[in-house]
Amino acid sequence: MRALSIVSLALVLLLISLAAYLRLDHSGIGCTPWPECYGNIGTERDAVALHERLLEDATSARSWATPMHRLVATVLGLLVLSLNVLAFREKRNRSASVALLALTLFLAIIGVVSGGLHSPAVVMGNILGGFGMLALLGGMVFQKRAPHRNASTLTKISAIALLLLGLQIAIGGLTSANFAAAACRTVPDCHGSWLPGSDLLKAMDLSRRHAVADNGIVLGGAERADIQMLHRLSAVATALLIIAAGLLALRFGHDLRIVGAALILLVSFEFFVGILAIVTDLPIGLAVAHNTLAALLLLGLLKLYAESRCSEA
Ligand code: HEM
Questions:
Q1: pTM of the model as a whole
Q2: Residue 76 domain-assigned?
Q3: Does the residue 243 lie in any domain?
Q4: Is the shortest distance between the CB of 231 and ligand 1 below 6 Å?
Q5: Cα end-to-end span (Å), the chain
Q6: What are the tens digits of pLDDT across the range 239-264?
Q7: Into how many domains does the chain fold?
Q8: Is 195 in the pocket of ligand 1 (CB under 6 A)?
Q9: Is 41 a pocket residue for ligand 1 (Cβ < 6 Å)?
Q10: Range of the domain at 100
């Protein structure tokens, strides 16, 4: 069961990166001329443009990423089914396995019925569903048999950091779902402002469908800059807490020291990649790396949490 969980974990990690690549490529991230071409998802009314888009897809990078995504997702689905059979036979990790299966079905259903990845609800469903599967598998792989009864300070800090990271990933997803990557092109301020404005709630409204201009470009307003500013501010809080947890872990034994050091490196790298992406007009490689690093951070924190529960307080 452990071997199956580890292979599934690796596949989810791959799937999260592939899905980000497909989604971001389709939304035109880092296209040229930037940012005029960003958010060009085409209009369904424009049959010619749609046809051209399909032809273009066959020759674009998506021509290899789409079948690979399907293949990995299918193998993962079979592994999740096997995990459930084993979980019930061995009477271990039953709720986590059922939750994994539910998330797999949820992602398969939105993949089939969404007909496109661009409504905020669909984008968020994809991102949170993928990261949710990663968290469940990470929990299964890293779990320890005999945790201490009293949580140490490190366990408490890593639990809070996990919550904050989850929130930060969701806000990153909203930034992407609102096509807000080009809304602030200066760092650290956003064209002179430092705080999100009053349109922030609009960016969080998942019931919306984006309005699309006649030329196929998604329309948006001030909510784009607002959500990106929130993402930047919450990144500072998240990074500080993860660094604090990492520094605290350096005082413990060998295993915790390694996880702590890795977390400090990972979060610094994630922060750096976020800024670099903005100042270099968001090449897709950096945007996908930003997503993959977020997934690795989540795994690192889950490992820290699990290890710290078995270390002396
Ligand atoms: C702890 C630190 C951070 C984490 C965990 C994080 C995580 C994420 C995630 C998960 C996404 C969604 C990516 C996707 O759609 O595939 C995202 C998007 C984004 N992040 Fe971050 N982020 C962090 C810090 C930053 C920083 C410091 C900046 C820049 C100053 C930044 C800029 C962006 C931008 C512009 C997007 C939207 C680009 C896109 O559509 O991919 N992030 N972030």
A1: 0.93
A2: yes
A3: yes
A4: yes
A5: 30
A6: 999 999 999 999 988 889 999 999 99
A7: 1
A8: no
A9: no
A10: 2-308
